[in-house]
Amino acid sequence: MPSGPDDIRARREQADGCSDIVERARATRRTVVEAAPDALVAAPTPRSKAAERQRREFRARVDGLGGALGFSVSPDGTWTSASGLEIVTRVSERPVTLAAAAHFVEELCRRARGRTPACSVLFVVESVSSAEMFQVAVRQRACRGTVRVVAVDELEDVAAGWSSGVLDAEDVISSITPVAAIDDVPEAGSSASPDDGAGQDGAS
Q1: Distance from the CA of 69 to the CA of which of 18, 36, 114, 201 falls in 20 to 30 A?
Q2: Concatenated DSSP letters of 169-186
Q3: 49-55 long-range contacts, Cβ below 8 Å, gap at least 24?
Q4: What are phi and psi of 150, to 5 degrees?
């Protein structure tokens, strides 16, 4: 049965209404993407929620170790000692490919060198095997003087050594900073020790 003028008009209005909805949805998505171009706009899934929880827990674990070593820990991941030494920390709570590691290292190195004054970066990863992967990337990107990579278990060993008095301030700094930054530690033979607050340069 042929459609009358009213039916045709109603269908056109319905189609226009759907087009408006689609266009508004696209505009909203564009606005969100422009506001956060590096973010993936997607509804949370059980898997993404679990990954986010794992990321938060790993970061909290690392920040707790920074506090145990005597650093003031900022929300942005910067560790600051009482003497003013700053270390920017970043974490990787899961294994990554060498290509991804190289990308992370290059970006961190660029940002660290662009800061005034320049700072060092401590990259804490979930395992020794991942640390080795990132260390290859650090060598490839010629960032050994800017980025230091440690496994979280190794960082826990450093914190335990500092707490027990087995490691002094110089040992701590040399364990978590790039080779080029080790010159900032106290002179050999200084009174730095876990029991001497005045000598805890970089771990107080």
Answers
A1: 114
A2: HHHHHHHHS-GGGGGGSP
A3: 51/94, 54/93, 54/94, 55/91, 55/93
A4: -140, 150
CA atoms of 141 and 112, how far apart (whole Å): 14
First to last CA, the chain: 86
Q: Write the pLDDT tens digit of every residue in 7-38.
A: 555 555 554 444 555 565 556 555 544 444 44
Look at the block and give the residue holding tokens 């990259």. Answer: 123
Which residues on adjacent β-strands are paired with residue 124? 91, 150
Contacts 24+ apart (CB under 8 A), 45-51: 51/94
C-alpha distance from residue 16 to each of 20, 21, 58, 196 (Å): 6, 9, 50, 75
120, two tokens: 């060092």
pLDDT digits (tens, 9 = 90+) for 114-135: 776 767 899 999 999 999 999 9
